[in-house]
Amino acid sequence: MSTPVTRRKPPRVGDQPLFRRALIGIVLVLGAFLILAPLIIIGVEAFAKGWQVYRDTITHPDTRHAIMLTVLAALVAVPINTAFGVAAAWAITKFDFRGKRFLLVVIEIPFSVSPIVAGVAYLFVYGLQGIFGPVLDEYGIKILFAIPGIILASMFVTAPFVARELIPLMQAQGRDLEEAATSLGASGWRTFFSVTLPNIKWALLYGVVLCNARVMGEFGAVSVVSGNIRGQTNTLPLHIELLYHDYQAAGAFASASILALIAVFTIIAKVALERQGAGRVRRPALAANPAEKTS
Amino acid sequence: MKIRLDHVVKTFETFRAVKDVSLEIESGELVALLGPSGSGKTTILRMVAGLEYADQGHIYFGDQDATDIPVRDRGVGFVFQHYALFPHMTVAENIAFGMKVSKVKREKAAIDVRVLDLLRLVRLEGLGDRFPAQISGGQRQRVALARALAVDPKVLLLDEPFGALDANVRRDLRRWLREIHSELGITTLFVTHDQEEALDLADRVVILKDGQIVQQGTPEEVCRDPKTSFVMKFLGDANVLAAEVRDGKAYASGAAIEVSGMADGKAELYARPADLDWSLQGPGIPASITRVLDRADGRRVLATAETGEHLEFDVEPERLVKAGDGGFVTLRRAKVFAV
Fold first, then answer.
1. CA-CA distances (angstroms) from residue A130 to A117, A125, B214?
2. Whole-angstrom distance, CA of residue A123 vs CA of residue A133
3. Cβ density class B175-210: b for 16+ within 10 Å, e for less
4. 20 to 30 Å CA-CA from B64: which of B4, B22, B118, B129?
């Protein structure tokens, strides 16, 4: 047994007490002002005129319609983008083909481009003065200022979410597992469902949750193509803006509280899924450690 | 099942990975494809498996042209270097996978019995409920082998099967694979860059370089009679001395050795460390010892010849040699290749 020795430990780099306290303090104060305070305001203002007003706003037909439309947009856009994401990730990581790098860049575009640009682009493609506009008009198909336009715009904005979660993971896992399954006689579908999917399921779900949150919260692209027709083409974020401009602050905050609630659930789901990723210690993918996923 | 490769060619983008390789593997034979990285050995193995398709040439399984049969229907057992076990399935589920997805339907009870048999064969009884992450590397590779054997493959293909394991485990698994092979008699082709592994394990060794076969034969044949300096160097440590052939004798730095049937001219003399010895008297190659490395089974001596060439040779553990000693390196036997 050695007796413990009291030693003056020299501070590590950037570890001086003053520096540490100042840094932590700054982050806490900024975090409170930038993030926490606005969220609290939403809660407070939503109920500022009492529970009755809150309930009236939420149950107002226009609000209800906006919620339904938002849910509908998510119900269509999320599954399609999930399928797209899985297909794109599979194609990019398991096959070699020309234009692979190009496809990777294309998938990332919605992240780097402002959503409003997407909205305007859709105007040019499907609008009455646009490329397909006259043809669609002739057949009586309405895309802009209607539900299809909203869904298309949401899909554009959220296209990369699932693919971006899956590509790094599937790249790290390599093709060995699929090759092994195939050499053992498994069909393509069988290989996907019993070998690939179980190894990417948490990342997939993670992407779906993020994709869903973005679809429900999307404002910019949707606002251009929806036309803001109350009770018809108003999604929840658009509805909030409309209420706010109508000087119905309590209504706007009440509707906003719904989106905030969705956000809270998203975060809970996200954290739970990250736990699952980390909980892979028991059976990690041998080729890579998905828990080390960076995102 | 007998396997025959007939003038097989494979090109990736612009890189010729395999250039016109023809090879026959007899039924029940255990053959090693040995070569440095980039020699095309893994590509050949993957083409036999059907994981890659040959650009030209044919691959026959018995009398059947298997060139275009997809991997799924080819009936091969493939063992990957990094095991490729399904991480979300237990050991038993991994082994049963091939039987479950097979077009030939099997009773669940029959599958269970077969899984137990295979676990016994690979000496992993009682580990069926573990996940791959819960067993050691050597055990994983044995599970991978059991999984490949479960579908009764016509051929067993192993890609650097022991490459990811440490030396001791590797040696054990090698002997054990040899035993399994004699027990099952299944035609087996494996890829390795480790000469010791190839020589230890295989009935026949096929040595590859730059996508071509440079020599093939039993371990004895390739070791005793390497046809080129590449094979000589690749199979083990070798000292190289510039030599000159005159009248059926090769002369190098003061040593001479009989070579019959070689034309006069410049040559290179190759000698294994065990083919050289140390003597205080000539004749021999005058040299001085620079370092002595002690090993479990003897002493490796590093020396520099008067002509500046670096020499390495082994002496018995009792021999008293030390750095700085001067003397003569004598030649017991050597191979001479014209340059």
1. 15, 5, 66
2. 9
3. eebbebbeeeebbbbbbbbbbebbbbbbbbbbbbbe
4. B118
Looking at residue A6, its pLDDT comes to 65
Interface test with B, best of A95, A173, A176, A183 (most B CBs within 10 A): A183
Structural domain range at position B294: 237-338
**Of B170, B200, B232, which residue is a domain's last?**
B232
User: Is it the case that residue A289 has pLDDT exceeding 80?
Assistant: no
All residues of chain A having their beta carbon less than 8 Å from the beta carbon of residue B82 are 176, 286-287
Q: Quick check: A85 and A161 in contact, CB under 8 A? A: yes
Domain spanning A51-292, CATH architecture: Orthogonal Bundle (1.10)
Mark which of B183, B208, B232 sits at the end of a domain: B232
Number of domains in chain B: 2
Mean pLDDT of chain A: 84
| Tens-place pLDDT, residues B110-147 | 999 999 999 999 999 999 999 999 999 999 999 999 99
Residues of A within 8 A of B132 (CB-CB) are 283, 286
- In which residue are the tokens 């490459």 written? B163
Output the six-digit token pair for B2.
Answer: 């007998």
Nearest to B131 among A181, A186, A282 (CB): A282
Suggest the residue from A176, A184, A195, A202 to mutate for an interface test with chain B (most B CBs closer than 10 A): A184
B72–A179: do the CB atoms touch at under 8 Å? no
Please give the backbone phi and psi of residue A111, each rounded to the nearest 5 degrees, phi first: -75, -35
**Sign of torsion over alpha carbons A256, A257, A262, A266:** positive
SS3 A109: helix
Measured between alpha carbons, how far is A78 from A138 in angstroms, rounded to an integer?
Answer: 30
Q: In terms of domains, do B227 and B96 share one?
A: yes
A62 residue type, one letter: D
Q: Which two tokens stand for residue B27?
A: 């039924």
State yes or no: pLDDT of A173 exceeds 90. no
Q: What pLDDT score was predicted for residue A4?
A: 63
Instruction: Compute the nearest-CA separation of A269 from chain B (Å).
Output: 22
Burial class (CB in 10 A: 0-12, 13-18, 19+), B10: buried
H helices within A1-99, ranges in order? 17-31, 37-46, 50-59, 61-94
Q: How many helices (H) and strands (E) does chain B have?
A: 9, 20
DSSP B226: -
Nearest to B84 among A176, A185, A283 (CB): A176
DSSP H or E segment with residue B257: strand B255-258
* C-beta atoms surrounding A80 within 10 Å: 15
Stretches where chain B sits below pLDDT 70 are none
- DSSP-assigned letter for residue B50: T
Query: Do A125 and A135 meet the contact criterion of CB atoms below 8 Å apart?
Result: no
Q: B102 to chain A: which residues are within 8 Å by CB?
A: 185
Q: How far apart are CA A120 and CA A126, in angstroms?
A: 10
In this structure, are B225 and B253 located in the same domain?
no
In this prediction, residue A273 has a pLDDT band, given cuts at 50, 70 and 90, of confident
For residue B260, what are the β-bridge partners?
Answer: none
Q: Could you tell me which residues of chain B have a Cβ less than 8 Å from any Cβ in chain A?
A: 49-51, 71-74, 76-78, 80, 82-88, 97-98, 101-103, 131-134, 140, 147-148, 150-151
Compare B292 and A270 and report the one with higher pLDDT: B292
Q: pLDDT tens digits for A77-94? A: 999 999 999 999 999 988
Q: How many residues in total does chain B contain? A: 339
